[in-house]
Write a structure and sequence with these properties.
Largest sheet: 8 strands, antiparallel, barrel
Distance between the termini: 44 Å
Radius of gyration: 17 Å
CATH architecture: Beta Barrel
Structural class: alpha+beta
CATH class: Mainly Beta
CATH superfamily: Hypothetical Protein Pfu-838710-001
Number of domains: 1
Number of strands: 8
Length: 200
Protein backbone atom coordinates (compact mmCIF):
# COMPACT_ATOMS: atom_id res chain seq x y z
CA UNK A 1 0.00 0.00 0.00
CA UNK A 2 1.32 3.41 -0.92
CA UNK A 3 1.46 5.91 1.91
CA UNK A 4 -0.81 8.94 1.79
CA UNK A 5 0.80 12.27 2.60
CA UNK A 6 -1.31 15.30 3.39
CA UNK A 7 -0.33 18.78 2.31
CA UNK A 8 0.27 21.40 4.97
CA UNK A 9 -0.58 25.09 4.66
CA UNK A 10 0.92 27.74 6.89
CA UNK A 11 1.80 31.41 7.04
CA UNK A 12 5.54 31.87 6.62
CA UNK A 13 7.14 34.89 8.31
CA UNK A 14 10.89 35.35 7.93
CA UNK A 15 13.87 37.63 7.49
CA UNK A 16 17.23 36.97 5.83
CA UNK A 17 20.58 38.41 6.84
CA UNK A 18 24.15 37.96 5.57
CA UNK A 19 26.57 35.86 7.59
CA UNK A 20 30.20 36.94 7.72
CA UNK A 21 31.33 34.34 10.25
CA UNK A 22 29.40 31.05 10.24
CA UNK A 23 31.20 29.61 13.25
CA UNK A 24 30.45 32.68 15.33
CA UNK A 25 26.76 32.56 14.39
CA UNK A 26 26.52 28.88 15.27
CA UNK A 27 28.19 29.45 18.63
CA UNK A 28 25.86 32.35 19.40
CA UNK A 29 22.82 30.29 18.40
CA UNK A 30 23.86 27.36 20.58
CA UNK A 31 24.41 29.73 23.52
CA UNK A 32 20.80 30.91 23.08
CA UNK A 33 19.49 27.35 23.24
CA UNK A 34 19.06 26.60 19.56
CA UNK A 35 19.26 22.87 18.87
CA UNK A 36 20.43 21.30 15.63
CA UNK A 37 17.45 19.93 13.72
CA UNK A 38 19.10 19.03 10.40
CA UNK A 39 22.79 18.60 9.69
CA UNK A 40 24.36 20.47 6.77
CA UNK A 41 22.56 19.02 3.73
CA UNK A 42 22.68 19.76 0.01
CA UNK A 43 19.48 21.23 -1.38
CA UNK A 44 18.42 21.60 -5.01
CA UNK A 45 15.40 23.68 -5.99
CA UNK A 46 13.59 24.12 -9.31
CA UNK A 47 10.91 26.73 -9.94
CA UNK A 48 8.21 26.08 -12.54
CA UNK A 49 6.06 28.48 -14.54
CA UNK A 50 4.26 28.80 -17.85
CA UNK A 51 5.97 30.27 -20.91
CA UNK A 52 4.00 33.48 -20.23
CA UNK A 53 5.31 33.50 -16.62
CA UNK A 54 1.76 33.41 -15.29
CA UNK A 55 2.74 32.53 -11.74
CA UNK A 56 5.41 35.21 -11.59
CA UNK A 57 2.84 37.76 -12.68
CA UNK A 58 0.65 36.68 -9.77
CA UNK A 59 3.63 36.80 -7.39
CA UNK A 60 3.34 33.07 -6.78
CA UNK A 61 5.88 30.26 -7.00
CA UNK A 62 5.65 26.55 -7.71
CA UNK A 63 8.76 24.76 -6.47
CA UNK A 64 10.10 21.22 -6.50
CA UNK A 65 12.85 20.69 -3.93
CA UNK A 66 15.22 17.84 -3.19
CA UNK A 67 16.69 18.16 0.31
CA UNK A 68 18.91 15.18 0.95
CA UNK A 69 16.73 12.19 0.03
CA UNK A 70 13.44 14.05 0.52
CA UNK A 71 11.38 15.61 -2.28
CA UNK A 72 8.81 18.32 -1.54
CA UNK A 73 6.46 20.32 -3.71
CA UNK A 74 5.61 23.83 -2.56
CA UNK A 75 3.25 26.58 -3.67
CA UNK A 76 3.72 30.08 -2.22
CA UNK A 77 1.56 33.17 -2.54
CA UNK A 78 1.58 36.59 -0.95
CA UNK A 79 -0.18 37.05 2.35
CA UNK A 80 -2.34 40.04 3.24
CA UNK A 81 -0.26 42.22 5.54
CA UNK A 82 -0.56 45.47 7.43
CA UNK A 83 1.71 48.37 6.53
CA UNK A 84 3.47 47.94 9.89
CA UNK A 85 4.51 44.41 8.92
CA UNK A 86 6.19 45.09 5.58
CA UNK A 87 9.64 44.65 7.11
CA UNK A 88 9.01 40.90 7.30
CA UNK A 89 8.60 38.51 4.41
CA UNK A 90 5.15 36.93 4.67
CA UNK A 91 3.86 34.16 2.42
CA UNK A 92 1.10 31.58 2.52
CA UNK A 93 2.86 28.28 1.89
CA UNK A 94 1.27 24.98 0.94
CA UNK A 95 3.74 22.11 0.95
CA UNK A 96 3.77 18.32 0.74
CA UNK A 97 6.36 15.56 0.66
CA UNK A 98 6.23 13.54 -2.57
CA UNK A 99 7.63 10.10 -3.37
CA UNK A 100 8.96 10.71 -6.90
CA UNK A 101 10.27 14.17 -7.72
CA UNK A 102 11.17 13.44 -11.37
CA UNK A 103 7.68 12.03 -11.98
CA UNK A 104 6.10 15.21 -10.64
CA UNK A 105 8.42 17.29 -12.83
CA UNK A 106 7.13 15.37 -15.85
CA UNK A 107 3.54 16.02 -14.77
CA UNK A 108 4.32 19.74 -14.54
CA UNK A 109 5.80 19.67 -18.04
CA UNK A 110 2.72 17.96 -19.48
CA UNK A 111 0.51 20.60 -17.84
CA UNK A 112 2.52 23.43 -19.40
CA UNK A 113 4.78 24.30 -16.45
CA UNK A 114 8.44 24.41 -17.43
CA UNK A 115 11.54 24.58 -15.26
CA UNK A 116 12.45 28.30 -15.34
CA UNK A 117 15.03 28.70 -12.56
CA UNK A 118 17.26 26.48 -10.42
CA UNK A 119 19.05 27.35 -7.22
CA UNK A 120 21.24 25.34 -4.87
CA UNK A 121 22.59 25.63 -1.36
CA UNK A 122 23.83 23.70 1.63
CA UNK A 123 21.34 24.19 4.46
CA UNK A 124 21.70 23.61 8.20
CA UNK A 125 18.61 23.96 10.40
CA UNK A 126 18.30 24.89 14.07
CA UNK A 127 15.20 25.23 16.23
CA UNK A 128 14.40 26.99 19.47
CA UNK A 129 11.20 27.68 21.35
CA UNK A 130 9.15 29.77 18.99
CA UNK A 131 11.00 29.53 15.72
CA UNK A 132 13.74 28.34 13.42
CA UNK A 133 17.17 29.49 12.30
CA UNK A 134 18.59 28.20 9.03
CA UNK A 135 22.06 28.77 7.64
CA UNK A 136 22.30 28.64 3.84
CA UNK A 137 25.65 28.35 2.06
CA UNK A 138 24.88 29.56 -1.45
CA UNK A 139 27.01 30.22 -4.54
CA UNK A 140 26.71 33.97 -3.80
CA UNK A 141 27.51 33.91 -0.10
CA UNK A 142 26.25 32.65 3.22
CA UNK A 143 22.86 33.78 4.45
CA UNK A 144 20.73 32.97 7.45
CA UNK A 145 16.99 33.09 7.91
CA UNK A 146 14.96 33.50 11.07
CA UNK A 147 11.43 32.16 10.78
CA UNK A 148 8.79 32.75 13.45
CA UNK A 149 6.53 35.41 14.85
CA UNK A 150 7.73 39.03 14.38
CA UNK A 151 8.39 39.60 18.09
CA UNK A 152 10.48 36.42 18.28
CA UNK A 153 12.44 37.37 15.15
CA UNK A 154 13.20 40.82 16.57
CA UNK A 155 14.36 39.34 19.87
CA UNK A 156 16.61 36.78 18.16
CA UNK A 157 18.17 39.45 15.94
CA UNK A 158 19.07 41.45 19.04
CA UNK A 159 20.40 38.47 20.98
CA UNK A 160 22.41 37.21 18.01
CA UNK A 161 23.88 40.67 17.53
CA UNK A 162 22.45 41.12 14.02
CA UNK A 163 21.88 44.65 12.75
CA UNK A 164 18.22 44.85 11.61
CA UNK A 165 19.34 47.20 8.84
CA UNK A 166 21.21 44.29 7.24
CA UNK A 167 18.05 42.17 6.97
CA UNK A 168 16.24 41.64 3.68
CA UNK A 169 13.05 39.97 2.47
CA UNK A 170 14.27 39.14 -1.04
CA UNK A 171 13.87 35.64 -2.43
CA UNK A 172 16.97 33.82 -3.66
CA UNK A 173 15.76 34.44 -7.19
CA UNK A 174 15.66 38.20 -6.64
CA UNK A 175 19.01 38.13 -4.84
CA UNK A 176 20.53 36.25 -7.77
CA UNK A 177 19.23 38.77 -10.33
CA UNK A 178 20.71 41.65 -8.33
CA UNK A 179 24.02 39.82 -7.98
CA UNK A 180 24.05 38.94 -11.68
CA UNK A 181 23.51 42.58 -12.66
CA UNK A 182 26.17 43.83 -10.24
CA UNK A 183 28.73 41.25 -11.34
CA UNK A 184 27.87 41.15 -15.04
CA UNK A 185 27.61 37.38 -14.78
CA UNK A 186 26.22 35.27 -17.65
CA UNK A 187 24.91 32.62 -15.21
CA UNK A 188 21.25 31.75 -15.70
CA UNK A 189 20.81 29.72 -12.52
CA UNK A 190 22.02 30.05 -8.94
CA UNK A 191 23.98 26.82 -8.96
CA UNK A 192 27.50 26.05 -7.83
CA UNK A 193 28.43 24.88 -11.33
CA UNK A 194 27.30 28.12 -13.01
CA UNK A 195 28.33 30.61 -10.35
CA UNK A 196 31.26 28.90 -8.65
CA UNK A 197 31.86 27.23 -5.31
CA UNK A 198 31.31 29.12 -2.09
CA UNK A 199 34.06 29.12 0.56
CA UNK A 200 32.97 28.64 4.17
Amino acid sequence: MRRRIAAMQAAEIELKFPVADVRRLRAAAEALGFELETERTFESNTLYDTSERTLRGRKQILRLRQYGDTWTVTHKRKADINDADVQYKRRIETESVVDEGPALAEIFAQLGYDAVFRYEKYRTEYVAGGGKLVVDETPIGVWAELEGEPAWIDRMLAELGVDPASCITDSYGTMFLKWKTAMGSPAENLTFEEVGAVAV
